[in-house]
Amino acid sequence: MSPRAGSAGPHTLAFVESPVQLLNVLEWAHAHALGTKVGDAPGRGVAIPAQGGPRSGAGRSVANGPGASEAEGTAPGGSGGPSLRRAAGEGLTLVVLSPTDPMTRGQLRRMAELARDEGYEVRWEEARGGATAPFRTIGGLTRMLRRARRVVMGDPFSRYVQLLLTITRARELVVVDDGTATMEFVAQLARGERLVRWHRKGGRPGARDLVFAPVSASARRRLTPSARRAVEVFSSMPVDETPAGVTVTANDFAWTRARFGPPRLTKGADLVGTSLVETGVVDGERYLEAVRALAAAHGARRYFAHRRESPDKLHRLAVETGLEVVRPDLPLELIARRGPIGRTILSFPSTVVHTLPLALVGMEVRVAVCEIDPAWLTDHASPRAQGFLSGVTGTARDVDRLPSAAEQDRATEQGMAAG
After folding, report:
1. Which residue among 19, 106, 131, 407 is buried most deeply as judged by most CB within 10 Å?
2. Alpha-carbon span 327 to 340, nearest angstrom
3. What are the start and end residues of every segment in region (Disordered) (predicted)?
4. Confidence at residue 29, expressed as pLDDT on a 0 to 100 scale
């Protein structure tokens, strides 16, 4: 899938809605050599300060209070390494379909600066800024969509992206990693199922789902390879069911490793948060108990919050566990690679149990994952939730698996019975 020179407009148009999606577009471009080294100096000389200083790149600590303001215009950079500039005519344009969440917007702005520093064009769209915003956004992108030879997307489940897919004439479609959602997308595409996020599967379609169903069905057809259209999935996640004709390319975080680090390692453990409470999968009280127990058992000091975790929940967690809660201003893979980072990283089932071992390959860092106990699930959780989360953990490589609370209780009971 090498770019072809000579046509008007960008050859490749990438749509992202989250910082991780943007990171993985940069990884995809690096893996496909969409650039040429022009020197050893950083492109714009913009530097992200090391974590721990007064301008710590780790993010903002919220241990003493909830909430944080959006990091509008905060300039990121790198830790050195060669800058990449696009050769003439290669034409990758990144389109940020901006969400409204302040933390996500802040991370996206910093990632957008990294992309510009690498020589890519970034177009920021206030795609959700009012009732007329979608019409303005789609209208402004239509001409570019129709000219692009390749469209890259980070979230094939996004209604926005699915709508844009009905416009494009691109002969090459690429889905870059969006974590665990990528596993579900590939499996659904292979089975010919409708595209539904795993934590919503099993529930009744709502009125908006029914109205949007024709668009979603059209997007699924376009994402099915044909004689007229090639489809690639670029992922660090395990892909067990590969749809016929789909090219699967491994994401090994080569750009991240080349651009950042190696990190300084600290004693003790860091704990990675999850938004499973916010998505209605895990009960909030049970989650708090699990975090408290993990922190105590492993000597964790910091809690890296997921960008979707609520300020109130994080404030309570900080007060009741004593952990320093940090809201990262970049994806965790970059935070960990820059350091400092704990020699042990604790996580619940999530994308990072697959990505951190790749980003930290060769480092003496232990990544350990704690299973989600079935008792933690809410009454509203999808019937597939437990199996899906267990699959995320079971397929992770180079991680240690920690027993769930139920498994620990059973082991205790067996030990007492044997004694």
Report:
1. 19
2. 15
3. 37-85, 399-419
4. 95
Give the single-character DSSP code of 88. T
CA neighbor of 218 nearest in space, from 264, 173, 271: 173
Helix (H, G, I), strand (E, B) or coil at 263: coil
| Beta-ladder partners of 173 | 151, 231
β-partners of residue 311 are none
**d(C-alpha 189, C-alpha 125), whole Å:** 29
Residue 206's contacts (CB-CB under 8 Å, 6 or more residues apart) are: none
User: Regarding beta strands 60-61 and 324-327, do their DSSP bridges make them parallel or antiparallel, or are they unpaired?
Assistant: antiparallel
User: In Å, how far are 42, 83, 114 from 39, measured between CA atoms?
Assistant: 8, 7, 17
Please tell me the predicted confidence (pLDDT) of residue 410.
52
User: 3-state DSSP call for residue 226?
Assistant: strand
By C-alpha distance, which of 280, 329, 325 is closest to 307?
Answer: 329
Secondary-structure percent of the chain, ordered helix, strand, coil, rounded to 5 = 35, 20, 45
Q: What is the pLDDT of residues 245-258, one digit of tens each?
A: 999 999 999 999 99
Token couple for 367: 């990544």
What is the C-alpha to C-alpha distance for residues 43 and 230, in angstroms, rounded to an integer? 33
Give residue-wise pLDDT tens across range 36-84: 333 333 333 233 333 333 333 455 444 433 333 343 333 343 444 333 3
| Per-residue tokens: 251 | 């994401």
Q: From CA 384, how far away is CA 201, in angstroms rounded? A: 7
Length of the chain: 419
395 in Cβ contact with 350 (< 8 Å): no
Specify the pLDDT at position 86: 42
Q: Nearest 10 degrees: CA dihedral of 346, 352, 354, 356? A: -80
